[in-house]
Amino acid sequence: xxxxxxxxxxxxxxxxxxxxxxxxxxxxxxxxxxxxxxxxxxxxxxxxxxxxxxxxxxxxxxxxxxxxxxxxxxxxxxxxxxxxxxxxxxxxxxxxxxxxxxxxxxxxxxxxxxxxxxxxxxxxxxxxxxxxxxxxxxxxxxxxxxxxxxxxxxxxxxxxxxxxxxxxxxxxxxxxxxxxxxxxxxxxxxxxxxxxxxxxxxxxxxxxxxxxxxxxxxxxxxxxxxxxxxxxxxxxxxxxxxxxxxxxxxxxxxxxxxxxxxxxxx
Length: 266
Prior knowledge:
The structure is a single chain. By secondary structure, the chain is of the alpha/beta class. The chain is built from 8 helices and 13 strands. It is globular. It comes from Tenacibaculum holothuriorum.
């Protein structure tokens, strides 16, 4: 992973800056969360089911809202994130809310250097794999941290979504579905606060659905389902329309916005 160090360092700097911005944003609605509102969405709630009493590893957890929402549901949670500022806030929230969860600051590729425990569930969600250049190693780490019969679940933006350059208006189809080259973007604001004056500098990688499924399968996981959906729970893409159920869709619904994968370790 040494060859990716400059990319990871830039991304870490951006995510460290984002923590303070996101903690004040309406999207993350931290006050409502502190007052008991779950940050989890319908896709993960339905798939994860009853997590009470189960051990759960949450990869790329940002500042831990979803991790702590799962802890409130009775899971024994460990959250991991690249951002030091994210982990500091996650630990602060854990203490403030009187919850029981562990948080570790490390690159997802270094998880096995920090965690030896095996888990009933490994979970990751929304805008995560695009920060990772190597899904084969990612999948192997997931498999290594699952108990026998343990479940991996992910919900993620569909790879078609990342083919567009959203800095153009209207968004322009620019990037390859299976593009191997790194993508660099620099812009003011963040997905949670477009008016913020912070500058986001980020390196990312596109991964087609076939690449994701194959990486998990080759790591020894049994794929239970792959699902694709036209509705997304976050209004983070241009010109989305809100439905009565609170979800968002494109006007023409020509392509899916979300996919979910559930897999089991034999």
